[in-house]
Amino acid sequence: MTRSRTALEIKGRMLSITRVRVLDPDTAAIRAHIEQLAKQMPQAVKGMAVVIDSEFETDLPALLEAMRGVGMQPLAVSEGPLAAAAKGLGLAVVSKDSGKGAAAAPEPAKAAPQAAAPAAGPRRAARIITEPVRSGQQIYAEYGDLVVLNTVSPGAEVIADGCVHVYGKLAGRAIAGARGDEGARVFCRKLEAELIAIAGIYAVSEQIKDGPRGVSAMAYLEQGRLKIEPHKI
Question: Is 80 left (phi over 0), alpha (psi -120 to 50) or beta?
């Protein structure tokens, strides 16, 4: 008698997906912006899973080529003008409410993603890190806050489903509200960040260079816009 074996196992998991909104249908402008993002935050862009959202007709094959050329992984296209082209290319088409993400816009205050409800889960005690977070490291606090009592080096990444607190220099990337909590915040004693993100809305170093760099700061969302201002911790 032949014993049957289970060929597949299906499990649900919360994935980090960035929604990239097309704000200009010009292919050359899109390619230039993608290449600029890749230069600003290469480690964040490489492997970034994205859903493309557009209200314009644009050259989807060229857009996909530009994204894949810098290491992005386009997974799907939102319903709209690009849906037919996506189906022809074998790309998934999802509703506009699917996924989390930030618009790849020049100014974080203009990034207005489609909000999704935070995933329910057991609230956990804060994860406390006493050692420096070094380049290449990624620290994640699931269902709670992350507290770093030391520095976060360039190329390092600290992520929390709740708030991120850095009681030293933040020179890497800080991501709060990773499961969609728009009330999450990022606090740091010295802001030199490569990237700050809350509930999928982000700003890279070039976008916040005129902000409170080199001092204690707080980042939060206000009416869907990322705000970064001085704040003592």
Answer: left
